[in-house]
Amino acid sequence: MGKEISLITQKMCMKSSNYKVLILGLEGSGKTTLFDRLKYNEVYIRYPTIGFLADNIIISKLNVTLWDFGGNSKMIKLWSKYFNNTDLVILVVDSTDYSSNEELSDIFTLLEKELKNVYILIILNKSDLKNSMSESEFLDYFHIDKYNLKICKIIRTSLVKGTEMKDIKKNIKNVLKNIKNDY
Ligand SMILES: Nc1nc2c(ncn2[C@@H]2O[C@H](COP(=O)(O)OP(=O)(O)OP(=O)(O)O)[C@@H](O)[C@H]2O)c(=O)[nH]1
Ligand SMILES: [Mg+2]
What's the CA-to-centroid distance between 181 and ligand 1, angstroms? Predict the structure, then answer.
């Protein structure tokens, strides 16, 4: 009994001290731009990510290990090796990209299969560009309702301009705090 209580306490401490958040999405969608916004509140000129970046950051007083993966097809095949113990997925979508139907569909299928109990925050990025789709256009165009995904929120934003960052952080915090309360 004592041992069980101590294990539960350990688990609570672990959860409250560190959360694992993955940033996923196709190449060029803006994952590293989001990583930089969350870590530095700045954007930098970046090359396509080879492999991944991972760093500990504080989001609304929560300790988060943020993983930013390269979105090229070779790397996507390796993503699932890093899925263990994920608390939240942030999926970044280029809202001007109407041509990646198949690739995005593969990602939705992967998430549905490998991370079925994990919340997904969708960032509909590049809203500053004129052919950027709205949230409802996105839902229709990619037939999102056919996937069994735990989408907690869709936020349309321009990460280069830094719009909606407060809302993004608030939603990350809300999902993570609820995970802690599940124990
Ligand atoms: N216009 C516009 N460009 C953006 C926005 N967000 C990111 N970009 C640009 O899109 C390009 C790709 O951004 P990254 O953040 O490197 O994309 P990524 O998803 O990390 O790409 P990979 O690492 O190759 O998978 C860069 O030139 C960014 O400046 C945005 O909101 N609007
Ligand atoms: Mg990148």
Answer: 34
Ligand of minimum distance to the alpha carbon of 24: 1
- Enter the pTM of the model: 0.91
pLDDT band for 180, please (50, 70, 90 cuts): low
Ligand 1: does its nearest atom lie under 6 Å from the Cβ of 162? Answer: no
Ligand 1 centroid to 103 CA: how many Å? 17
Reported as a single tens digit per residue, the pLDDT across 58-100 is: 999 999 999 999 999 999 999 999 999 999 999 999 999 999 9
Q: Whose CA is nearest to atom 1 of ligand 1?
A: 126
In terms of CATH architecture, what is 17-182? 3-Layer(aba) Sandwich (3.40)
Mean pLDDT taken over the chain: 91
- Report the separation in Å between the CA atom of 3 and the middle of ligand 2, taken as the mean of its atom positions: 43
> CA-CA distance, 6 to 132, in Å (whole number)?
51
| Widest distance between CA atoms in the chain | 61
Boundaries of every domain in the chain: 17-182
Supply the angle between the helices 165-181 and 31-40 in degrees, to the nearest 10.
80
> CB of 29 closer than 6 A to ligand 1?
yes
Q: Whole-angstrom Cα distance, residue 43 to residue 39? A: 10
Higher pLDDT, 50 or 5: 50
